[in-house]
Amino acid sequence: MTEEWVGDPTHIAPLNRYAAALRARHGDVPRFDSLDGGIDARVLVLLETPGPASASTETTSRDNPTGTARNLTRFLDELPLSRRDTVIWNAVPWGLPRREGKLGRPTRKDIEMAAQDLPALLALLPRLQVVALAGRVAQSFRTALAAAKPELRLIAIPHPSPTHLAASPAARENLFGGRLRREIAVALADDAS
User: Fold this and answer.
1) Which domains does the chain have, with CATH numbers?
2) Can you tell me the distance from the alpha carbon of 23 to that of 29, in angstroms, rounded to the nearest whole number?
3) By C-alpha distance, which of 85, 91, 36 is closest to 61?
4) Which of 5, 12, 105, 169 is most exposed, with minimal Cβ within 10 Å?
5) For strand 43-47 and strand 130-134, is the pairing parallel, antiparallel, or unpaired?
6) 102, β-bridge pairs
7) What burial class does residue 137 get, using C-beta atoms within 10 Å of its C-beta: 0-12 exposed, 13-18 middle, 19+ buried?
8) What CA–CA distance (Å, rounded) separates 92 from 103?
């Protein structure tokens, strides 16, 4: 991956410096999407691990050419906030080796190392109010997030991958039904008052 991209907008530059520091230690870590809110975000969507599209685009983005990104975009577009209110990242932000043709799963060591890096990320997001934990790996970071920033509202959401949603109609209904959107909207409204 390219180490230094010229011209990072000021709202995303601190996050991409954070990503570059992780890249120096762990290898394949994508950048944050400059179209998202960056350091001004109020909602962090924490996915599990970078998918193959992140390697080709070098960015964790709802605009990546995948079904997961399309489903995430659909979910986020129905929230009562703008794209500049959100930022997307991965619980384990470095690429994992493929195993038997499938995406690698994070090990306990990957999860422990990534949890240690979370406070530095949260320190870069002063307006953050809500973390949407997408999938089991992201949801395993609940304790680390609460310890680092206790005032955050942590909301579990199904992982938006097409495979997961196809295997679980309940997860699909949960993601695209109105309950999660209302829960996030209420959390943002409560914090604003």
Assistant:
1) 13-192 (3.40.470.10)
2) 5
3) 36
4) 169
5) parallel
6) 99
7) buried
8) 13
Place of tokens 């599209």: 53
Cα-only R_g, the chain: 16
Dig out the tokens for 29 from the structure: 């870590």
> Packing angle between helix 169-176 and helix 67-77, nearest 10 degrees?
40
Kindly list the distances between the CA atom of residue 151 and the CA atoms of 59, 64, 116, 138, 142, in Å, as whole numbers in the listed order: 28, 31, 19, 18, 12
Query: pLDDT (tens digit, 9 = 90+) per residue, 30-76?
Result: 999 999 999 999 999 999 998 877 767 889 999 999 999 999 999 99
Strand 153-157 with 59-60, pairing: unpaired
Rounded Cα gap, residues 26 and 153, in angstroms: 29
Model confidence over 84-100: pLDDT tens digits? 999 999 999 998 866 66
Q: Phi and psi (nearest 5°) for 91?
A: -55, -50
